[in-house]
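Deviations from the work plan: none for this task. Representative record:
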Amino acid sequence: MLLSGSEIVMECLLREGVDVIFGYPGGAILPTYDAMTKYPQIHHVLVRHEQGASHMADGYARATGRVGVCIATSGPGATNLVTGLATAMMDSVPIVAITGQVPRAAIGTDAFQETDVTGVTIPVTKHNYLISDIHELAYCIKEAFYIARTGRQGPVLIDIPKDVQNEKIEFVYPEGEIRLPGYRPPTSANESDVFAARDLINNAKRPIILAGHGIMMSGAMQQLRELSERAQIPVTLTLLGKGAMPEDHPLCVGMMGMHGNAASNHAIQESDLIIALGMRFDDRVTGNLKTYAPHAKKIHVDIDPSEIHKNVKVDVGIAGDLRTVLNQVLPGVNGNTHPEWLNRIRDWQEDSSERDILSNYEGDKLLAPQVINDLWRFTDGEAITVTDVGQHQMIEAQYYPHRRPATMLTSGGLGTMGFGFPAAIGAKFGRPDEPVWAIVGDGGFQMTMCEMATAVQERIDVKIAIINNGFLGMVRQWQEFFYEERYHATPMVNPDFCKLAEAFGIPNMRVTQRDQIQEAVEFANSIKGPVLIEFVVEKEEIVYPMVPAGADLDKMIRRPKKGEQ
Amino acid sequence: MPNNTSKQVVVALVENKPGVLNRVASLFRRRNYNVDSLTVGRTHKSHVSRMTIVVDVARTDARQIVSNLYKLVNVIDVKALTGEPHVSRDLALIKVRTDDVESRNAVTEVCERYPARIVDIGVKYAIVEITAQEDLVEKLIDELRPIGIVELVRTGVVAMGRGVRILDTEYEPINHHQTAGDLERYGV
């Protein structure tokens, strides 16, 4: 079959099972956009800014576990993808980005809309390709998908010069195995490490499991639960680990880290064994490394060998697929109870609930925790929530407990403001039958709110909850704590979000009182299509607890108890 | 070797493709590894190049360097040689002043005490070549310095482990230009 490069791209996408791609056309990618007309099986979503396309591909991938695809033209189109690629890189999300490039003969001449995109994206992709020969095209696309979804997953970019897209060759799809001599992701653990890990687990008095994103990426939810239940080991979650274990499970202590549950942080510091599974000891979860979990032996399992011993030196480091490794370890794990340890954790939890603002607040302003907690109630805790970055993100993590994997999508590692709304659109394309809520702040939403037009054009059923406090709230909180309340460049003069939604043709509602929340959720659910709800909340709220950057993990700034101001 | 306690010698086999050096250099830059020297050259297999990288490792764990290099898709095999028996060589060309009898004799005399030779000699300058371990090269440079060095170039260290541990080159690259018939042997 004589096919052009563009048609080969589409043929390869079909064979990878791609059903939707997010993108924006332009000169250097036009041949591929033209080829799309022959492939109606693949739906193209026209975004309003390429950053949105990369976040949508990311949200799609996080929601489904499949590879998300975005596409853009050369130069500015490609550079606009970079934030989304970096976001996906930090959070190990499999996406494939396809970019047009100027014709081969023009490469290196500073041609119109030419950028060295493979050069620019080396640090923010797992791998990338500049296709210099059409004969390599199909193979490279196949490799790209394979690399994106195996090992430690991540973004892969394919840069295709315009003349390669136009060139025609006899097309034979490379059906065989991928052969990458330097790419051998680790799989299982060696026996001695398995024995060492079991030994530590069976002998621990105060063990705790630190469960991360890797649990879901390797599908080890069942194994995690079995380990935790059999040996009665409490589980604490990273931000991206939310969903790895149902948060209403009695052994689940909730999130750890800078704004994690105090009980989790205290437990980590007092533990005698840390079992870190599919997480990478980010500075936001460890605090001061010198004083981190000082009494604990440490087991670390991660798919990426370079994560072992990177931040925290461990006693047993296993590079491998989490599910495989847990299946190796589990048979030798003894039943256990740890009653004293679990009671100690329960005490910390009780202390936290005494400090909870939801039970202590007597003012009449609407609070972000009230909004999130009511959203949780009125969506039965079953919505897919996609957050932006900042206070509302941490409040979501604290007040919207998730039961199922891949129901809380958020930019963790990179902390990308503007991620939430486009990622929610992508997530809805991936899981059209589930309710999807974008929970965003007024700051972050304004970074990518142009995608409201995309949502309307696609009639995509995403609900937008803007938690509007008129501030860049998390930055303001730092200014309050660490910069003597000099609120510089954090107060925001915002547009009227409801009128804005109106202009885009999006039904909307403004909520200023707690008793309106239920009505607002019902209103949103009554409409099939995008709906925007603006929650006008208390301006100067603080997310507690807080571990100041670089402080010891258990040296948290706490919310005072009632009557303790 | 002097200073070598804080230095790591890492050897890597990489696919001989455009941009691979850039990927390696980019990795070292973004991970904040301080590169002392980096050499690349082809091997006996045309599709494989070999790098020897010397890293100032005061702040970096050698395991981290190796596992990060290994993460690059185009890196076929990596090994840290420091602490293992290995042969390492640095080559230097040193242009020294030889415009009087005294200096000419001095250069000749110094070279006799090193695995070095004079490869070019003119009225004003001579070029000395030395291939040796890095510390010997440095000693020679120190001895030539008072005579008058005007130009100096070094290749950087190349190294190879002794004995049976051999870096893996046992693969053949895919030839994308083969006809459909030829592709069968790749299972296509």
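The domain at 2-170 of chain A is CATH 3.40.50.970 (Rossmann fold).
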